[in-house]
Specification:
Number of helices: 22
Strand order of the largest sheet: 7-6-5-3-4-8-9-19
Number of strands: 26
CATH superfamily of one domain: ANL, N-terminal domain
Helix content: 40-55%
CATH architecture of one domain: 3-Layer(aba) Sandwich
Radius of gyration: 25 Å
Strand content: 15-25%
Structural class: alpha/beta
Length: about 625
Amino acid sequence: MTLTEQAESDATGATGATTVASLARDWAARAPKQVAMREKDFGIWKEYDWGRTWELVELAAHGLLALGVEPGDRVSIHAEDRPEWIILDLAAVAVRGITVGFYPTNPAAEVAYLLQDSGACVHLAEDEEQYDKVDELARDAVPDMRRIIFVEPRGMVGKDDERLLFWDNFLELGREHRAQHPTAVADRMAAAQQDDVMTLVYTSGTTGPPKGAMLTNKNASFCIDKIVNSEKRVPGGPPNPNDQIVTYLPLCHVAERIFSTWTMVGAGPVLNFAESIETVNENLREVQPTIFFAVPRIWEKLHALSLIRANDASPFKRRMLKLGLGLANRIGKIKVANDGNHTLQSRLLAAIGWVIVFRPMRERLGLRRCRYASSGAAAIAPEVLAFFIGLGVPVFELYGMTENAAVATANFVGRMKLGTVGEPYPDIGFRIAEDTGEIQVKHDGVFKGYWNKPEKTAETMTEDGWLMTGDVGQWVDGTHVRIVDRIKHIIITSGGKNISPSEIENSLKTSPYVKEAMVIGEGRKYLTALIGIELDTVGDWALRHNITYTTYHDLSEKPEVIELIDEVVQQTNEKFARVENIRKFALLPKELDHEDGELTATQKLKRSAMLDSFGELVESLY
């Protein structure tokens, strides 16, 4: 019986609908000593078994009840990935509340918008930095907020705010409430409905204010059935308690929530919390996860790191690494040509590569034990994936979005087609509109709508209930799907040619020297591009060529660097038709930043904001 079917069965009885909280409770009942989570504390990995994890979730749930949280109330979380994030998330669902996740990088203005739009009554601010973003707001600007829970006490002692509540005191409040009302949380869980909204996941807001997508218990159960417990998706079978996962991307993003929290409660693997985004590489090497999810930016970074190490090694090691990189590319091409399957030739090359360089390289990347890896949330250049596939890391590209609980397509084992996002999941409604080429889906994972924005919800759905994704797709061999671009990103030149900028941008970013790229040409005679260099790799290249520099700006102005990037542009132009060639480009004078409004919290370019910030630079290209 699938979770969706179980939820329908449970909902007719007294146990309540299946939720991510009830799944966690079930693990605690059947495997209380099994490890659920690990975090690093003063250099030592500290374990949380399922028994302790559920004990903390239950205390937090009672704590929320003690604070007056009613069904449908919003509980917001503004923190880095840590056990408290997941504990409070599950606790909110347990009492039929709605979790609202914030990105750790959200600036004060965005925090204000999210708190006001969601109407959160309880807010977790991890530390003084995140609390200050709330403290800036006038009380009448967030009238619904009754309590602010904080986890890190440093800098918080003596704050004059009666709303503040230390995490340990919050749990103690829950302990007292449980002693007085021992069945209160169980009673709430027994009343849970499939259609209960369990989280608001705010969109990245590339074209306007973020919108809160309402995902229900039924959406989550459907997602766990289709993605987490899919028999076709993961080599060696679905995730299980023997698997290790490193959690490092923001948990407010639907992809990380699925691959961390929902995978943990749905299949039981161990979650290992990275200490920070800056230490991900080190933590990967320590944990050597068996299952790994990354957005394209991370894969591109790992790819660039591999090339830097090859360049910085001793002459002998450099030759060996370059030989290994060549083998990886060769193996990748063979496997790609065979739907991700090995041939006799590729097996022999892989055996040679493993002895020479693959094993230590994968060890340094932290992917030596990886049996399944995936890329999603944005488009990625096929060349990057082919490299890792050749290295022996089975990376599968998949596709989905917040509004469909990420259930759309995936490359399945033995049926991979590089350059595509795979095939539709079995037994879902999936179609590509004949007139616009837009991908549309219809299934139990489709969201309930946008919070307080019925008109925006209506704009997203067809009259017969299909979700319009806004992505243009094409069938490949009648089975797989290739994403062309977002409809709103398609460039129409003055000559009437339709051009997909994402494909060109992703090709540019296969170079280890390019971090960001934005192709321009709407209503223009030809294409140009704004390019942001990768500071680490270009800086390393400059030092090896005896080019001194002081800042990012200084480095980007060096004639030798401009010539280096020009070579990248010319290599990209060779891959595309003449009308799609970049005629001129300019290097960005600064690294793009979320707080400056140039990037979303998910590191996607805000194209309109980029044109505003660098308008003069763009005009200089024409």
